[in-house]
Amino acid sequence: MPAVRLLLISRDDILRDVERGEAEPLFRRLAGLTRQGFHLLATAPQPEKWSGEHGSPDDALLGPDSIRKRLLDVGGKLDGVYYVRRSLLTQKRNRQDALNDMLERYGASPGNCTLLSSKRKYMQTAIEMGINGIQLSRDLRLLEALAGFGEEPDNPTRDS
């Protein structure tokens, strides 16, 4: 059975590239990766008025012009949305717990998981856990970071 390949990307970083006018190439690239077998999970901070029983709708992820729908429209799939709990006293532990939970839910090993994020502390925690990390910034946007991602030297990725 092939290893599960898990791709974790911050909702905010996806939206940042969309706001820059890079929606179409970004969603096509992400769709290509999901067709190659990558599981795509968007991460977001837990909303302030969160109830464990009733999450509030997140239009960016679930609405009519959502990340999920835009990916589906180009043949991709968003496997899920993971809301990371917030707490000033337990932030690092919450990040570790969230990353461990995502790995466990998908049966992925840290070495088969990649986090793309502009959040430095989240990135640091992931790398300490053995998760591959690509730090996004003003100089390295999500679409650019994904340009060579998933390509095998003998089997280049081709997007439609």
Distance between the termini: 27 Å
For the record, what is the CATH homologous superfamily label?
HAD superfamily/HAD-like
The tally of domains stands at 1
**Whole-angstrom Rg:** 15 Å
Low-confidence stretches: 153-160
- The ordered H/E elements are EHHEHHEHEHEH
Number of helices: 7
| Helix share bin | 25-40%
- Average pLDDT over all residues: 84
The CATH architecture classification is 3-Layer(aba) Sandwich
The CATH topology turns out to be Rossmann fold
Helix/sheet category: alpha/beta
Which CATH top level class fits? Alpha Beta
Q: Largest sheet at a glance?
A: 5 strands, parallel
Approximately what portion of the residues adopt beta-strand conformation?
15-25%
Count of distinct strands: 5
* Oligomer category: single chain
Strand order, sheet with most strands: 3-2-1-4-5
Net shape: globular
Indicate the topology.
Blueprint: E1 5-10, H1 11-19, H2 23-35, E2 38-45, H3 59-62, H4 67-73, E3 80-84, H5 91-106, E4 113-117, H6 120-128, E5 132-135, H7 142-146
Parallel strand pairs: 1-2, 1-4, 2-3, 4-5
